[in-house]
Every structure is written in C-alpha cells, then in structure tokens.
Amino acid sequence: MLKNKNIIVALTGSIAAYKAAELVRLIKKSEAEVRIIMTDAAKEFITPITMQALSGNPIHSNLLDMEAEAAMGHIELAKWADAIVVSPCSANTLAKISQGLGSDLLTAVILASEAKVFLAPAMNQQMWNAQITQENVVRASSLGHKILGPGEGEQACGDIGSGRMLEPEEIFAALEAFSLSLLEGKKVLITAGPTQEPIDPVRYLSNHSSGKMGYALAEAAEAAGASVTLVSGPVNLRASSSIEVIDVVTAKDMFAEVKRSIEAADIFIGCAAVADYSPVNTHSQKIKKNLNENLLLELEPNPDILKFVSENYSNKTIIGFSAETENVEDFAREKLVAKNLDFIVANDVSRNDIAFNAAENEVLIISKDKTKALAKASKILVAHQILNYIHQDSLLH
Fold this sequence. Notes:
Number of strands: 20
CATH class of the largest domain: Alpha Beta
Helix content: 25-40%
Shape: globular
Largest sheet: 8 strands, mixed
Distance between the termini: 23 Å
C-alpha cells in the first residue's frame, strides 16, 4: 500500500493522459496524498478541473507562477514528494528529463527532488523506436529513473507496436512495489526465454517462449528493491539498464551462467523454457536435403537447471515455472515435489490468450500445502502479484 506516501502524478502531452485519472483514483484509494503537475500540452487532452477533483488538491502548472514562487513552489513540491510518476511521459518530456533540463515546472521539480522518479512512456511506435528516443531511455535509466513499459498494441493513430502507456493498474503495482520495498537488499537471479540447441549452422531445436514473463519478473523484482541478474535466452526484449542481463543461447550456456551466479543470489526464479534435449552431434556444415531418406537425430538430455539449484542451494528461495497443456495443476505439483521447490508457477500454454508470446497470463502458484490462482492479467501485473505472494507467504529464506 501507499498509505501516508506523498505522490506527484505528472501529465504531459499525450492522448493517454485520460488514463492518469484512473491512476490517481488508485493512489488515493490506497490512502496516499496526491499532487498533480500538468504541462500546457497535457491540458489539451484532459482538463485541470478533472484532475483537481480527483486529487483533491490544486493543479500545479507554471514554473514562473509569481504567487507560488514567492514561497519557492517548485522546491517545496520537490521536497514534499516520496515518488514522482510521469504518466503519460511524452517523447519530448523524456528527452528533457534525460538531458537534465529544468525548463518547465515538471523538469525543475525532478531536478530538485530526491524522490524516486517513474516514467511511463506514451508515444507513436515509430517515435518510441527512434534511435534518439532509445538513447534518451538509456540516459534516463542511468540517472536512476525507472522506465515503466511501454506496452504493445494498437495505438490511437492506428499503428500497432510498442509505445502504448501501461495500464493504470500496472503503474500502480510498480509504485506499490517501490513503497513496500518487498525485496530490498535481496539478490534475485532469473532465467528467461527459450534456449536454442543447434543441429547445424542454420537449424536448431527450440520452443515458442518469448521471454515476456521472465522479463516482467525481472522488472517487478527490481521495482521491489532487489538487485536483479537476468540470464536470458534469445529474445526480442530489452530490460532496464539497472538489471544485469547475461545473454545465452543453449541450455548448457544457461546452466553455466546459473552456476556462476547462483552463489550470490538469495532468490532463484527459473522462468526460462529450457530445451529438455539437444542433439548429440552438431553438424559443422548444413545438412543437405535428401527426400529419399529419413533424417534421424540422436538427442541427449540437457542439464536440469532447477534440480541442480534445489539440490545444491536449499538455503535459497527457489521458484520454478511449469508450462503445461493438460492436467496443469497435477503435473506442476509433481514437478514441485520432484525438484523440491518452494513453489511453482503453472499456466496452460494450450490457450492462445495466455500461451507463449501472449501479452497476458493466468497462473496457479503452487506451494507444498496450497494453491493460489491469479486471474488473467498483463504479465507485468502478474509478475508483481507473484512477488507479493512470495512476501506474504513468508517463503523468503
């Protein structure tokens, strides 16, 4: 909860400004105090009177407001805040913040404040993917600001891609994780994505994992105060710059990196869809097609990363994932027991709406004595709920 916290919600020029109304409602419901900063562009998308009514406080807009600045209003705001969330954060405002400008009230408050800053980008997919925007994201992250999202999907202009502002519930979950500091001081090691097991220089065995769930867990753990190392198979995703990402390809590569990093970790989350088998022999040249003969591949088991960690590091909190197509809870519970895990997170990958590469998930969290069902939600929201469950169920060693 955010009870008794002071939160600044800042709105900039984006059609997604309407979502800030729900975000303020969620923050107020958690018994936090909210003040609103609106840029001039934001006022073109949602009225100040709406935000004033929701927050219960006057709207702050102008840096050179003589009445407010007589008492150094921007400094007072900066000192008051425990957290500042820029939602939506336009490409223009992101650029200003990343460069350390203080040309308006919002950027001046950020420069003058020691509060944690959260940026929820909202822009056209081409603007988000522009090289300069991506450089600004890296710079903003290096300043300690937390980038929330963006999400993917259809945009107001009709384009489809990255750049949608996260939903208010997702942004609120990140604020709550920061406030509660559930994993403060903890070191978390996470595996994510698929592995690729080479057959020859152009072919490999793999699966449909996108890595989205593992990356969401990494972001949620980092927001909750943890130091996060993410061992990632080949994916088309990028984690925050504050998360250490170790890129691997094969299951053996992933196993080697886990063995190297596990000693320092307090919590291990095995979310990767590790290939169970790999070819005994990898051909050095491309295998040529011969339609008159069958091609036989001899496969051998890959190292069982989860089992290795549980057998050798029982003093750590160990969480596994189980992607099933039938008897989801039964098979997941068998895996939980066989590998002696603290708990396992299971989902039904036969469903297209929550399967590999989907934006949402619906899972069962299974421990030795109970099962907790999490309703269908975005993967980042599910990730926060999983970590909250770990904390509430006292599974941290």
